[in-house]
Structures are given as structure tokens and as C-alpha cells.
Amino acid sequence: MPASLARPTPPPGRHHSGAARAAELDDRYAAAVTISVAGPVVAIAIGFALALWVARGISRPLREVGSALDRVSEGDLTTTIPDPGTRDEVGTMARGLRRTLASMRSSVAEVLRQAGRVTAASQELSAVATRIESGATDTAAGSQSA
């Protein structure tokens, strides 16, 4: 029999019987099955953890902006709109809401200024009307005595 076809002999000091070889192959198979099952399970767990992290990264800023919107809808124009510090849709929405709120504050301040002017003009008109009434009363009284 040629040497290339001869059965390999185990290294010195290691003699394998058929049962020992079968046990070694069973151990290798069990390790391969464990790795084959554990790998996808670990990958799924990591994927689930990443999904939670991303979901919280989106939902937390949305809840904060939503809470601020609730306060504004209740009439609190002093509300501070949180800055999520992102350049995504949530960040764009928060920046737009901040600009809108600043515009609303400016509009309310202008209405209050104009209301103050109307109040002052109303008081002046009331004073003029009182003087006209007084003058008319005096004129009427003078014409009756004449």
C-alpha cells in the first residue's frame, strides 16, 4: 500500500480508539450547535437592545416637545421649548416651534401695547366728553338765566 493512502498514525503518546474519536466528534458537534444557536440569539438580543435605544432616542424628545406644546395650548407662552440637539425631524420641529412661540410672544406684546394706547385714548376722550358736558351744562344754565 502506498504511503499516501496509509492510515495516519496519531502522534506519539496519543492513541485514538474508535470510541474516543466518536466522543471527540460528538463534543465538536455539540460545540458547533451551541455556537450556531448562541450566535443568532446574541445577535437578536443586541438588535433588540439597539432598537430600544433608538426608540427611546426618538420618543423622549418627542414627549418633551409634546409636553411643551400642551403647556402652550393651555396659554403658557413662557414655556421653553427643549432643544433635542438633533438635525432630524424632531429637531426641525422643535426649532420651528421655538420660532412660532417667539412670534406669538411678540404678537401678544404688540396687542398689549396697542391696548394700552387704546385705554389712554379712551381716558382722554372720556375727559373731553366730561368737559364738553360740563360746558354744555354751563351754557344751558347761562341761557336759561338770561
From TrEMBL:
Transmembrane domains' residue ranges: 29-54
Domain HAMP: 56-109
The UniProt record lists the keyword Zinc-finger: no
Classification via Pfam families: HAMP
Keywords tagged on the record: Membrane, Transmembrane, Transmembrane helix
Gene3D superfamilies, per the entry: 6.10.340.10
Entry-linked InterPro entries: HAMP_dom
Protein name, UniProt field: HAMP domain-containing protein
Organism: Cryptosporangium minutisporangium
